[in-house]
Amino acid sequence: MTIEGTASTFPLKRTSTQVKDERLQRVLRGEEFLLFDGGMGTMLQRAGLGAGELPDLLCLQNPDAITTIHRAYVEAGSQAVTTNTFGSNARKLGDAATVDEVFAAAVRCARAAGATYVAADIGPIGELMAPMGELSFSEAYDLFAEQARAAEKAGADLVIVETMADTLEMVAAILGVVDSCALPLFATMTFTASGRTFLGAAPAEAALIMALLGVDALGVNCSAGPADLQPVVREMLRVAPRPVIVQANAGLPEVVDGVTTYTLPPADYAAAVVPMIEAGASVVGGCCGTNPDYIREEAGLLTDRAVQPRSVDDGQALALAREAADEGGRDGDIIALILEAADTAALKDALIEEFDLDW
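Below the sequence we write its predicted structure tokens.
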């Protein structure tokens, strides 16, 4: 795909982000660390909650339990806690509650725990995007936009789109967020043991797509243990002109007596995070299998450390994006369309036409 008329800076870079305070500004400039929390599902399971119904509804049904989990992470050192809204899109919620109701309750739970920053969590919709599945780009975009509006209305400090396995769904999510609210946007994808996403995206291509679309921080979550994610993170650090996020699982899961269990100890988890911090990752936390003990270990890692400087800038990343676009392939074509788009509306139309997506 030929690229014509590309701008000298990221064409879809956001200009109206509302940042809570100067400390968060420093985080977004890559000058300071930010420590997130760990797994919500892990803690719900430990408390005997969350089985059956959508766990997000517990924000309405048992808010004290959710606040208790958030508070445990805050006490362990988490500066940003993630709302219990991973599946809170209109399609999953159905008639059980509205998106506004769940996000409002979830932000209240996190705020009551004393969190410095409340990150509104947005996960995958749970269906394959067309043409591989039946979820249209338009439907996905609208669902994500509704969540973003609800997050901002509820008073969240930032949005985190996480655990995406499909770059096209990530694009729909990012566009839905940036078109609908002014909160800082973090975005993370999940990778298989091959070092690529479920649908084959390489870490560098995924990072370039997220950066080109104007996210404020990007990286990887879930996937595997931190040692296994080191090559993925190194590749992202090589091309990303934004702070890089690492929120790994506590190793690979094992089924013990019918229960999914993660066996990597907190100290070993933290030790495996160190090389990524030393390489320049500046936003860390945990995902499946992690609990406040893991976050406490990471908090200790960050004490008296400074973020390691990196040399990637917008111009360098733009050149790398052009190279990826020239190489083609599904994600190279997505990058090319982003580079050619004048605005998000033009990009949506181009994606729909290029990939024969149902609007």
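The chain has one domain: 26-354.
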